[in-house]
User: What shape does this take?
Amino acid sequence: MHTIDMSSVLLQMRVMAARAQGTETASTHPAPPSEGGFTATLSRALEEVNRTQLRAQEMSAAFEAGAGNADIAEVMLAMQKASLSFQAVTQVRNKLLAAYQEVMNMQI
Assistant: This one.
């Protein structure tokens, strides 16, 4: 299972913003880009969110069915993780959409 290094993604976003504003400094230089770049990172993040939601659904169904190994605390924790990850993806989507609209509204 892949984990997303959010600090790396945030650093890449800050570097891109600094380059766009022309205020790039030595401290904003990122580490070498990971495999696949931004698109691959975003795809992996979406896959991870999907897995988190599926796991929460499975745990919830197991608890509702009365499976002996399903603990209510673990089910609630999994559901909260799924909810938070979905909210984070929604916010990223909103920011990307706003950035796209801003670029499209720029005059050449």
